[in-house]
# Entry
Amino acid sequence: MTTESDITPSAADRHHPMLKLALELGPLMIFFFANLRGQWLVERFPALSELGGPLFVATGLFMAATVISLVVSKIVLGHLPIMPFVSGIVVVIFGSLSIWLQNETFIKMKPTIVNTLFGVALLGGLAFGRSLLGYVFNAAFQLDAQGWRKLTIRWGVFFLFLAVLNEVVWRNFSDDTWVAFKVWGTMPITIIFTLAQMPLVLKHSINLEPDGEK
# Structure
């Protein structure tokens, strides 16, 4: 099994940027709408009732969609993107525990665990002189060493912020509110944060020579 291991973007990454976005957002959208229409899905597909209530049905479909997105990514892009791959592993493990034990806590804590893992990994990587963020954004842009370091610090802190935010929401609001926040809250916040980093990205961008010009 191959994951992204080079900060140089592959040809597939450059040629299929929208596919990468769809593969990452698709499972989340399925999770949201499955939770929203959980009862309707059970009525149409009675076998889903074995999973439990709407949130458990949504979790089961979320797990299936996540696995499918990783398989498609492997086939079309030729590798498994690091962040979706790690997140997918946690989704399957904690989603399975949630359904098996009929305990929503496991799937609700998944974003907390994943974001904390990413935050600690990014900030910890800098302690060893490595900017791991390059493995995540390799298809989007190329930065100099100082740029990757600054961006890595910002994203590391941002992931830890998302972890804390998820804990606040799922512990203090309803299931529907948490699911809506996971899809419609986290994503806009992430997009706004990403756009806010563009001045830094532009300042530290470098040109990447095509293979034929080396």
